[in-house]
Amino acid sequence: MHKIEIMIENQEKLENGTMLPIMEDFYTLQGEGFYTGTAAYFLRIGGCDVGCSFCDVKEAWNAAIHPLVAVDEIIDKLQYLPTKTIVITGGEPCKYNLNYLCKRLKEIHFQTHLETSGSHHLSGQWNWICFSPKKGVFLHDEFYAKANELKVIIESTDDFLWAEENAKKVNKNCRLYLQPEWSKCKYTYQGIVDYILAHPQWRISIQSHKYIHIP
């Protein structure tokens, strides 16, 4: 098969979701949010057009530098893991068609968790959606209706207003989390604690994996 034919075939597989650009995958503990401390397999998909200044995986932004991997190959790796929970993260995973990935994961009885900014339409079948909206980005309303967890990153006091704006839109069963931006956390912790004491519908999410030095 000629190189140009391979490129066309790979593009078709990328569009139908049978291949995805994978930056990394690893087995660890969930470090943030509702499932903090639980074992999970992480699959990080490359490619993001949100571009958060505080992103701690900027190397995930450029999908072109990460290899296209067949979803069936990913499934083969997961068959004998001790956990049945997988977290699909990025980058921004919703840039891609995730229907086939979720279909295959359900076939091997995995619980599917998604971490997304909500900047692209939702695809796939999910047991848990962590929605972390960012300012200045078009957000799709479907995430407010379907989110199990709203996670807002706090850099400054202005972000509490952003958190409340989003909290008004989510469904009534959605858990609400405020998470300090890592590089500024020593300056924001107390403000977050005080805010939650005054607004107890919120919880704090701490990046516990960074404290115990795991992926």
Report on the structure:
With 215 residues, the chain is α/β, with parallel strands linked by helices. Helices cover 30% and strands 24% of the residues. The protein contains 7 helices and 9 strands. It has helices spanning 3-16, 71-78, 99-107, 142-146, 158-167, 185-198, 208-211; strands at 19-29, 39-45, 68-70, 85-89, 111-116, 128-131, 149-154, 175-180, 202-204. α5 links the parallel β7 and β8 (175-180). The longest helix is centred in the first third of the chain and has 14 residues, at 3-16. The model has no long low-confidence stretch (mean pLDDT 95).
Keywords:
215 residues, alpha/beta, 9-stranded mixed beta sheet, 7 helices, globular
How is the secondary structure organized here?
Elements: H1 3-16, E1 19-29, E2 39-45, E3 68-70, H2 71-78, E4 85-89, H3 99-107, E5 111-116, E6 128-131, H4 142-146, E7 149-154, H5 158-167, E8 175-180, H6 185-198, E9 202-204, H7 208-211
Parallel strand pairs: 2-4, 4-5, 5-6, 6-7, 7-8, 8-9
Antiparallel strand pairs: 1-2, 1-3
Compose a concise summary of this entry:
Helices cover 30% and strands 24% of the residues.
What is the tally of helical segments?
A: 7
Radius of gyration: 18 Å
Helix content: 25-40%
The fraction of residues assigned to DSSP E strands is: 15-25%
